[in-house]
UniProtKB/TrEMBL annotation:
It holds the Pfam family Pyridox_oxase_2. SUPFAM superfamilies: FMN-binding split barrel. PANTHER family: AGL049CP, PYRIDOXAMINE 5'-PHOSPHATE OXIDASE ALR4036 FAMILY FMN-BINDING DOMAIN-CONTAINING PROTEIN. This is Pyridoxamine 5'-phosphate oxidase Alr4036 family FMN-binding domain-containing protein. It comes from the Eukaryota. Residues 47-140 form the Pyridoxamine 5'-phosphate oxidase Alr4036 family FMN-binding domain. One of its GO terms (molecular function) is FMN binding. InterPro entries: Pyridox_Oxase_Alr4036_FMN-bd, Split_barrel_FMN-bd.
Protein backbone atom coordinates (compact mmCIF):
# COMPACT_ATOMS: atom_id res chain seq x y z
CA UNK A 1 0.00 0.00 0.00
CA UNK A 2 1.32 3.46 -0.90
CA UNK A 3 1.20 6.05 1.89
CA UNK A 4 -1.01 9.03 1.15
CA UNK A 5 1.85 11.51 1.43
CA UNK A 6 3.93 9.51 -1.05
CA UNK A 7 1.10 9.62 -3.55
CA UNK A 8 0.75 13.37 -3.09
CA UNK A 9 4.46 13.89 -3.68
CA UNK A 10 4.33 11.72 -6.78
CA UNK A 11 1.41 13.69 -8.15
CA UNK A 12 3.44 16.89 -7.94
CA UNK A 13 6.54 15.42 -9.57
CA UNK A 14 7.37 15.85 -13.23
CA UNK A 15 7.02 12.13 -13.89
CA UNK A 16 6.00 9.09 -11.88
CA UNK A 17 4.72 5.55 -12.04
CA UNK A 18 2.36 4.17 -9.43
CA UNK A 19 0.95 0.72 -8.88
CA UNK A 20 -2.35 1.72 -7.31
CA UNK A 21 -4.09 -0.23 -4.61
CA UNK A 22 -7.72 0.70 -3.93
CA UNK A 23 -6.71 2.77 -0.89
CA UNK A 24 -3.90 4.52 -2.73
CA UNK A 25 -6.13 5.28 -5.70
CA UNK A 26 -8.75 6.79 -3.40
CA UNK A 27 -6.10 8.84 -1.65
CA UNK A 28 -4.67 10.02 -4.97
CA UNK A 29 -7.99 11.11 -6.42
CA UNK A 30 -8.86 12.88 -3.16
CA UNK A 31 -5.65 14.85 -3.48
CA UNK A 32 -6.43 15.56 -7.12
CA UNK A 33 -9.93 16.85 -6.39
CA UNK A 34 -8.49 18.99 -3.58
CA UNK A 35 -5.92 20.31 -6.05
CA UNK A 36 -8.61 21.21 -8.57
CA UNK A 37 -10.75 22.79 -5.89
CA UNK A 38 -7.89 25.17 -5.12
CA UNK A 39 -8.81 26.89 -8.38
CA UNK A 40 -12.58 26.68 -8.68
CA UNK A 41 -15.54 24.57 -7.64
CA UNK A 42 -16.76 22.38 -10.49
CA UNK A 43 -20.21 21.81 -9.00
CA UNK A 44 -21.79 24.72 -10.86
CA UNK A 45 -20.06 24.18 -14.19
CA UNK A 46 -22.37 24.56 -17.18
CA UNK A 47 -19.95 23.10 -19.74
CA UNK A 48 -21.29 19.62 -20.62
CA UNK A 49 -17.90 17.93 -20.80
CA UNK A 50 -17.00 18.58 -17.15
CA UNK A 51 -18.99 15.78 -15.50
CA UNK A 52 -17.95 13.08 -18.04
CA UNK A 53 -14.33 14.15 -17.57
CA UNK A 54 -14.62 14.02 -13.78
CA UNK A 55 -16.29 10.60 -13.94
CA UNK A 56 -13.47 9.27 -16.12
CA UNK A 57 -10.87 10.70 -13.74
CA UNK A 58 -12.48 8.83 -10.89
CA UNK A 59 -12.47 5.59 -12.91
CA UNK A 60 -8.84 6.01 -14.00
CA UNK A 61 -6.98 8.22 -11.49
CA UNK A 62 -3.52 7.16 -12.67
CA UNK A 63 -4.05 9.14 -15.91
CA UNK A 64 -5.80 12.12 -14.34
CA UNK A 65 -2.75 14.34 -13.90
CA UNK A 66 -1.33 14.53 -17.42
CA UNK A 67 -2.46 15.27 -20.95
CA UNK A 68 -0.84 15.87 -24.35
CA UNK A 69 -0.79 19.49 -25.49
CA UNK A 70 -0.37 20.13 -29.23
CA UNK A 71 0.59 23.55 -30.58
CA UNK A 72 1.70 25.05 -33.90
CA UNK A 73 5.13 26.68 -33.72
CA UNK A 74 7.75 28.43 -35.82
CA UNK A 75 10.81 26.22 -36.31
CA UNK A 76 13.69 25.38 -38.68
CA UNK A 77 11.23 23.83 -41.17
CA UNK A 78 8.72 26.64 -40.97
CA UNK A 79 5.43 26.37 -39.11
CA UNK A 80 5.02 22.81 -37.83
CA UNK A 81 3.00 21.01 -35.13
CA UNK A 82 4.51 20.17 -31.76
CA UNK A 83 3.17 17.92 -29.00
CA UNK A 84 4.27 17.27 -25.43
CA UNK A 85 2.89 15.85 -22.19
CA UNK A 86 2.11 18.48 -19.56
CA UNK A 87 0.67 18.44 -16.05
CA UNK A 88 -3.03 19.19 -15.66
CA UNK A 89 -3.17 21.95 -13.05
CA UNK A 90 -6.89 21.78 -12.45
CA UNK A 91 -10.02 23.55 -13.58
CA UNK A 92 -10.02 27.34 -13.53
CA UNK A 93 -12.26 30.25 -14.46
CA UNK A 94 -10.94 32.85 -16.90
CA UNK A 95 -11.54 36.61 -16.74
CA UNK A 96 -14.84 36.14 -18.59
CA UNK A 97 -16.12 33.62 -16.01
CA UNK A 98 -15.75 30.69 -18.38
CA UNK A 99 -14.67 27.22 -17.32
CA UNK A 100 -11.14 26.31 -18.44
CA UNK A 101 -8.51 23.58 -18.29
CA UNK A 102 -5.22 24.90 -16.96
CA UNK A 103 -1.53 24.06 -17.25
CA UNK A 104 1.66 25.83 -16.24
CA UNK A 105 4.48 26.78 -18.58
CA UNK A 106 7.43 29.10 -18.93
CA UNK A 107 7.33 32.13 -21.20
CA UNK A 108 10.83 31.03 -22.27
CA UNK A 109 9.50 27.72 -23.64
CA UNK A 110 8.89 27.17 -27.35
CA UNK A 111 5.21 26.44 -26.77
CA UNK A 112 4.86 30.09 -25.75
CA UNK A 113 7.73 32.03 -27.32
CA UNK A 114 7.61 30.36 -30.76
CA UNK A 115 3.89 29.78 -31.13
CA UNK A 116 2.46 30.57 -34.55
CA UNK A 117 -1.09 30.62 -33.21
CA UNK A 118 -2.95 30.46 -29.93
CA UNK A 119 -4.98 27.54 -31.31
CA UNK A 120 -4.18 24.29 -29.47
CA UNK A 121 -5.51 20.78 -29.05
CA UNK A 122 -5.39 18.74 -25.87
CA UNK A 123 -5.54 14.96 -26.19
CA UNK A 124 -6.21 13.10 -22.94
CA UNK A 125 -6.07 9.31 -23.00
CA UNK A 126 -7.30 7.30 -20.00
CA UNK A 127 -5.79 3.87 -20.61
CA UNK A 128 -7.64 1.84 -17.96
CA UNK A 129 -10.99 3.48 -18.71
CA UNK A 130 -10.28 3.23 -22.47
CA UNK A 131 -11.65 6.71 -23.05
CA UNK A 132 -10.09 9.57 -25.01
CA UNK A 133 -10.96 13.26 -24.65
CA UNK A 134 -9.89 15.87 -27.20
CA UNK A 135 -10.29 19.60 -26.52
CA UNK A 136 -9.75 22.30 -29.16
CA UNK A 137 -9.70 26.08 -29.08
CA UNK A 138 -7.49 29.12 -28.49
CA UNK A 139 -5.36 28.95 -25.35
CA UNK A 140 -5.21 32.05 -23.22
CA UNK A 141 -1.74 32.69 -21.77
CA UNK A 142 -1.82 34.42 -18.39
CA UNK A 143 1.44 36.33 -17.81
CA UNK A 144 0.22 39.41 -15.94
CA UNK A 145 1.12 39.92 -12.30
CA UNK A 146 -2.54 40.86 -11.77
CA UNK A 147 -3.86 37.54 -13.12
CA UNK A 148 -5.88 35.77 -10.44
CA UNK A 149 -5.48 32.35 -12.08
CA UNK A 150 -1.72 32.79 -12.35
CA UNK A 151 -1.26 33.89 -8.75
CA UNK A 152 -3.58 31.18 -7.39
CA UNK A 153 -1.71 28.42 -9.20
CA UNK A 154 1.69 29.72 -8.09
CA UNK A 155 0.56 29.68 -4.46
CA UNK A 156 -0.53 26.06 -4.87
CA UNK A 157 2.74 24.76 -6.39
CA UNK A 158 5.18 22.79 -4.27
CA UNK A 159 8.71 24.19 -3.94
CA UNK A 160 10.16 21.74 -6.45
CA UNK A 161 7.74 22.93 -9.12
CA UNK A 162 8.44 26.57 -8.31
CA UNK A 163 12.20 26.04 -8.55
CA UNK A 164 11.90 25.02 -12.22
CA UNK A 165 11.06 28.62 -13.12
CA UNK A 166 14.29 29.86 -11.58
CA UNK A 167 16.55 27.68 -13.71
CA UNK A 168 19.05 29.87 -15.61
CA UNK A 169 17.95 30.31 -19.25
CA UNK A 170 21.48 29.50 -20.46
CA UNK A 171 21.62 26.09 -18.75
CA UNK A 172 23.50 23.54 -20.87
CA UNK A 173 23.21 19.76 -21.04
CA UNK A 174 26.77 19.40 -19.77
CA UNK A 175 26.00 21.37 -16.61
CA UNK A 176 25.76 19.23 -13.49
CA UNK A 177 22.10 18.81 -12.61
CA UNK A 178 22.66 19.09 -8.87
CA UNK A 179 24.60 22.34 -9.28
CA UNK A 180 21.94 23.85 -11.53
CA UNK A 181 19.17 22.80 -9.14
CA UNK A 182 21.10 24.32 -6.26
CA UNK A 183 21.32 27.63 -8.15
CA UNK A 184 17.61 27.52 -8.92
CA UNK A 185 16.69 26.73 -5.32
CA UNK A 186 18.87 29.58 -4.08
CA UNK A 187 17.19 31.98 -6.52
CA UNK A 188 13.78 30.76 -5.35
CA UNK A 189 14.66 31.45 -1.70
CA UNK A 190 16.06 34.88 -2.55
CA UNK A 191 12.87 35.77 -4.43
CA UNK A 192 11.00 35.89 -1.09
CA UNK A 193 7.78 34.63 -2.61
CA UNK A 194 7.77 36.83 -5.71
CA UNK A 195 6.35 35.16 -8.81
CA UNK A 196 9.00 35.03 -11.58
CA UNK A 197 8.17 36.83 -14.82
CA UNK A 198 8.67 33.61 -16.78
CA UNK A 199 5.80 31.85 -14.97
CA UNK A 200 2.78 31.54 -17.22
CA UNK A 201 -0.57 29.77 -16.97
CA UNK A 202 -2.29 28.41 -20.06
CA UNK A 203 -6.10 28.40 -19.94
CA UNK A 204 -8.14 26.55 -22.54
CA UNK A 205 -11.86 27.27 -22.75
CA UNK A 206 -12.72 24.60 -25.33
CA UNK A 207 -14.64 25.42 -28.48
CA UNK A 208 -14.87 21.71 -29.35
CA UNK A 209 -14.80 18.55 -27.23
CA UNK A 210 -14.60 15.10 -28.81
CA UNK A 211 -14.94 11.99 -26.60
CA UNK A 212 -14.28 8.45 -27.83
CA UNK A 213 -15.17 5.48 -25.62
CA UNK A 214 -13.46 2.34 -26.91
CA UNK A 215 -15.55 0.12 -24.63
CA UNK A 216 -18.51 0.44 -26.99
CA UNK A 217 -17.20 2.68 -29.84
CA UNK A 218 -19.50 5.48 -28.72
CA UNK A 219 -18.67 9.08 -29.61
CA UNK A 220 -19.75 12.33 -27.99
CA UNK A 221 -19.04 15.69 -29.56
CA UNK A 222 -19.82 19.14 -28.19
CA UNK A 223 -19.33 22.42 -30.03
CA UNK A 224 -19.62 25.70 -28.13
CA UNK A 225 -21.97 28.17 -29.82
CA UNK A 226 -21.78 31.11 -27.40
CA UNK A 227 -19.08 33.49 -26.25
CA UNK A 228 -19.60 32.20 -22.73
CA UNK A 229 -19.71 28.45 -22.01
CA UNK A 230 -23.46 28.06 -21.52
CA UNK A 231 -24.60 27.12 -25.06
CA UNK A 232 -23.37 24.00 -26.87
CA UNK A 233 -24.34 21.83 -29.83
CA UNK A 234 -24.44 18.15 -28.88
CA UNK A 235 -23.81 15.20 -31.22
CA UNK A 236 -23.53 11.52 -30.31
CA UNK A 237 -23.49 8.13 -31.97
CA UNK A 238 -21.50 4.97 -32.62
CA UNK A 239 -18.41 4.95 -34.83
CA UNK A 240 -15.12 3.02 -34.83
CA UNK A 241 -12.01 5.04 -33.94
CA UNK A 242 -10.78 4.99 -37.56
CA UNK A 243 -13.68 7.27 -38.52
CA UNK A 244 -13.69 10.99 -37.87
CA UNK A 245 -16.28 12.50 -35.58
CA UNK A 246 -17.53 14.25 -38.74
CA UNK A 247 -19.38 11.02 -39.52
CA UNK A 248 -21.35 11.39 -36.28
CA UNK A 249 -22.11 15.04 -37.03
CA UNK A 250 -23.24 14.25 -40.57
CA UNK A 251 -25.50 11.43 -39.40
CA UNK A 252 -27.02 13.60 -36.66
CA UNK A 253 -27.63 16.43 -39.14
CA UNK A 254 -29.47 14.10 -41.53
CA UNK A 255 -31.67 12.77 -38.73
CA UNK A 256 -32.66 16.28 -37.70
Amino acid sequence: MIPCESVAEGAAASSFSLDFTDDAALCFITRLITHMSAHVSVSGASAPYVKPLQDTMMRDPSCASYFTLSTVEHGPRGVTPRARTVVFEGFAVDDDDRFALSCKLSSNSNKFAKRASDEVEICWWFSSARVQFRFRGPMRFETSAQSGSRNALWEHLVLGDRAQFFYPPDVLAKDRQDAVYERATKALIESRGAVPESFCVGLLVPLEVDVLDLNDSSRKYWRRTSVDDTAWEDFSGLAPPVLSVDAIIAASTKES
